Amino acid sequence: MNTSQTSTACLFFFVLLLGGCRDDGRGSGLIETQTPTEIQVPSNGAYGILVVGPFRAGVQELTLRIGSEQFDLSSYQGALRFDTAKMSLLDVVFPKSDFHLVNRLDEENGSVRFAGFAVDGFGGVVDIGLSFESEVPIRSGDVTFDLGVLGTPVGSEIRREEIFEIQEMAKKGAP
């Protein structure tokens, strides 16, 4: 990546951070499924999917997986929403590489914003680990997300119609 591409990618990321902490009102590319075994990620475009992990001693583990088979992703921003009457967010764990951040200022209202950036791309999927305290296992619809912006290493924003937000919970080991 040359200096111009790096500058463009950095500028895109900072615009993403400055503008990314607001709701832009765009619709979702929601894919509805009947059972977790039917969930398949699209080969065209980019996707986000919630992968359900173990529920032990009142703690539910989830993973928000962001990826693409078509694009090399280098930036993302979005929001996670949950019902604070049913659960509370204990922890958010990002990959150890690249740059990732979370804004938990509106957590008491059930909203958490997140963003990430890698100059040369993430080189695969980004898994964001989530731990919730809950009386019962979390079900599809209890936690939702919105991928507001996804970008590539050359500074291009992925078009909204190419972003698929799979809100149905997938079983551990999903794509």
Can you put this structure into words, describing what you see?
- The strands form two sheets. A five-stranded mixed β-sheet has the order 4-7-2-1-9, with no helix packed on it. It has a four-stranded antiparallel β-sheet with strand order 5-6-3-8, covered by helices on one side.
- The chain is 10% helix and 43% strand.
- Residues 3-38 have low confidence and may be disordered.
- The protein contains one helix and nine strands.
- It is mainly beta.
Summarize the structure.
This protein is mainly beta and 175 residues long. The chain is built from one helix and nine strands.
Q: Strand tally, please? A: 9
Return the structural class: mainly beta
Order of H and E elements = HEEEEEEEEE
Rounded Rg: 16 Å
Oligomer: single chain
Q: Estimate the helix proportion, in percent.
A: under 10%
**Strand order in the sheet with the most strands:** 4-7-2-1-9
For the record, give the distance between the C-alpha atoms at the N and C termini, rounded to a whole number: 29 Å
- Mean of all residue-level pLDDT scores: 80
Q: Helix tally?
A: 1
Low-confidence stretches: 3-38
- Main beta-sheet annotation: 5 strands, mixed
Shape: globular
Report the sheet-strand fraction. Answer: 35-45%
